[in-house]
Write a structure and sequence with these properties.
Blueprint (H helix, E strand, L loop, with lengths): L4 H10 L1 H22 L8 H8 L3 E5 L4 E3 L8 E15 L2 E8 L4 E2 L1 H6 L5 E13 L1 H10 L1 H22 L2 H7 L1
Antiparallel strand pairs: 1-6, 2-6, 3-4, 3-5, 3-6
Helix pairs in contact: 1-2, 2-3, 5-6, 6-7
Length: about 180
């Protein structure tokens, strides 16, 4: 069945519950797609991905809101749903942007596998995120060891990029 967008808008205007249901459905599909396409969860089947999705909590971030502070204890695994975040690292007192992540981007894995965060992450112009608490990340890794292996590989790759960018062996040794 195919329904034209204008007809859906008319029905939603007449019956707000329909509009709300369509909005929730669309939002849930976007989230499921993000989790389904994330390299961390690539090996999981559809049922397992659905179970993973329900462990994430939703979070909206304002523009310029600090989501993670460099050096802090891990705050969880974050998946960017909407918007952009800047990953910044202190370089002698100056904040240097190491990466910019948009929808589908993930951060927090270094903290989770190494025990402390290696960068500050800031919402650039506001962002919608999914956050997986550290204890839920650990439980998922216990249940699905491939998630931990992929998180470790991603953390190692990002730490290697930092070593190259900053020519900083001390930083990497501290992270190891």
């Amino acid at each position: 069945i195919r329904v034209e967008l204008e007809v859906l808008r008319e029905v939603a205007a007449e019956r707000p519950a329909v509009g709300d249901a369509l909005t929730r459905f669309t939002h849930d599909r976007v989230l499921a797609t993000l989790v389904g396409t994330s390299p961390l969860f690539a090996e999981l089947d559809q049922t397992a991905r659905s179970a993973v999705l329900w462990r994430f909590e939703h979070r909206d971030a304002d523009a310029n809101e600090v989501l993670v502070w460099e050096g802090d204890a891990p705050g969880g695994l974050h998946l960017v749903v909407r918007g952009t975040v800047a990953v910044r690292r202190d370089d002698g007192g100056a904040q240097v942007t190491v990466a910019t992540l948009g929808p589908g981007g993930v951060f927090g894995e270094i903290g989770l596998v190494r025990g402390h965060t290696s960068a500050t992450v800031v919402a650039v112009g506001g962002a919608e995120l999914l956050r997986l608490a550290p204890e839920d990340f650990k439980a998922l890794c216990d249940e699905y060891p491939s998630i931990r292996a992929r998180a470790e590989a991603l953390a190692d790759a990002r730490l290697a990029e930092n070593r190259f960018i900053f020519e900083d062996d001390e930083f990497i040794e501290a992270a190891d």
